[in-house]
């Protein structure tokens, strides 16, 4: 019975997974999922799926009722005075399911055809992991293996001719007890850091920041699936750059001009101070509307990228979010200066519908 239930549950999970994958492009371009994210799970609304439930045999009509009433009293019919009325349309069946973030990352990889990342620095960071590897006759009670203990007791009683099929009672004794054993394995483990940078000048409005928030959620989901240790840093800039926390990064309202080099300089300082390039997989994601203060600062940006950021990075991703107030010139400057540079990935994001392709642009190289 248990095996059948497990098979039915697995089949239902596969149906749910298929529906989520079918609508993944729609989910990616919307922001409501972010508010439903827990530590390890995210709640996703899946339409047109009925929740599995028990159905009673219609031939078995008997049952026990509670409350006042005589034999023959109709049950369940109202007197017509209740608020509301009957409808003729079909209801929309929407089920909210909790999906592990790891499984969501796998779906993202399948849908966008993302390759697994080959990290650097594995040999430099080692973690200890305990793995259960066998069974022993001694050990702490917390590691008692009940199934193996029962089997050993049953085997002993059968061999000693003390087992009665008519009264199948199996009582383990001290010698029957079996315990799990473990080994501590030392496994190399890669570290990664994401440094997000965002232009918060007057030309970057709420819509542009919402696009950045949604896209960074999916980037985080994928990279956390690829790396066991992940750190995230946030930089905002207008004419001056500053490091902030996550909440400030996504909700700051600023105005004024744009000096992109201030963010690049601060990012380079953070890497040099906190993240040795040999040990860390370093990702930069910069979002802007493409305005910058003059050619002199653009030249400074190119110099910082060429000499400091790109040599340290696994990947430097620049996403240019379309804005009615931005010139969009900076992405063209990057294209001209760094033509053929594999570590630099550029993406133009025309709106929320452009997030899907932008993620594929950024993560599709497997770096």
Description:
The chain is α/β, with parallel strands linked by helices. The chain folds into three domains: 1-52 and 93-113, no CATH class; 130-186, no CATH class; 191-363, von Willebrand factor, type A domain (Rossmann fold), CATH 3.40.50.410. 36% of the residues lie in helices and 22% in strands. The chain contains ten helices and ten strands. The protein has helices at residues 2-22, 24-28, 101-112, 146-159, 206-226, 246-251, 260-274, 294-312, 329-337, 355-363, and strands spanning 41-47, 94-100, 126-136, 179-188, 191-199, 229-237, 241-244, 280-288, 315-321, 344-349. The chain has a six-stranded mixed beta sheet, sandwiched between helices. Strands 1-2 form a two-stranded antiparallel sheet. Strand 5, helix 5 and strand 6 form a beta-alpha-beta unit. Helix 3 (101-112) packs across helix 5, helix 5 (206-226) packs parallel to helix 10 (355-363) and helix 7 packs parallel to helix 8 (294-312). The longest helix is centred in the N-terminal third of the chain and has 21 residues, at 2-22. It is elongated. The two termini are 47 Å apart.
């Amino acid at each position: 019975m248990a095996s059948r239930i497990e098979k039915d549950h697995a089949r239902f999970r596969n149906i749910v997974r298929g529906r989520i994958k079918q609508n993944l492009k729609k989910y990616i371009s919307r922001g409501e999922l972010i508010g439903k994210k827990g530590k390890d799970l995210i709640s996703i609304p899946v339409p047109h799926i009925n929740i599995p439930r028990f159905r009673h045999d219609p031939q078995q009509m008997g049952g026990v009722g509670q409350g006042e009433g005589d034999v023959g009293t109709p049950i369940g019919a109202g007197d017509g005075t209740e608020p509301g009325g009957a409808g003729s349309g079909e209801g929309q069946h929407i089920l909210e399911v909790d999906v592990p973030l790891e499984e969501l990352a796998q779906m993202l990889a399948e849908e966008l055809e993302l390759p697994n990342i080959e990290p650097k620095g594995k040999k430099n960071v080692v973690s200890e992991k305990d793995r259960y590897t066998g069974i022993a006759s001694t050990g702490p009670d917390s590691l008692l293996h009940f199934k193996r203990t029962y089997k050993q007791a049953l085997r002993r009683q059968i061999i000693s001719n003390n087992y009665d099929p008519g009264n199948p009672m199996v009582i383990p004794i001290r010698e029957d007890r079996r315990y799990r054993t473990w080994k501590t394995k030392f496994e190399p483990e890669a570290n990664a850091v994401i440094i997000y940078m965002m232009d918060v000048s007057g030309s970057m409005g709420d819509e542009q920041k919402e696009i950045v928030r949604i896209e960074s959620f999916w980037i985080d989901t994928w990279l956390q699936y690829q790396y066991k240790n992940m750190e995230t840093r946030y930089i905002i800039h207008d004419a001056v750059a500053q490091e902030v926390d996550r909440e400030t990064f996504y909700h700051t309202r600023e105005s004024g001009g744009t000096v992109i080099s201030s963010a690049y300089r601060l990012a380079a300082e953070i890497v040099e101070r906190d993240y040795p390039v040999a040990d860390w997989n370093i990702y930069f994601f910069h979002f802007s509307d493409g305005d910058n203060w003059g050619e002199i600062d653009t030249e400074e940006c190119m110099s910082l990228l060429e000499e400091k950021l790109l040599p340290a990075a696994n990947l430097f991703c620049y996403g240019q979010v379309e804005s009615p107030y931005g010139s969009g010139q900076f992405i063209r400057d990057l294209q001209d200066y760094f033509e053929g540079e594999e570590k630099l990935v550029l993406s133009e994001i025309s709106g929320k519908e452009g997030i899907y392709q932008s993620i594929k642009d950024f993560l599709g190289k497997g770096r």
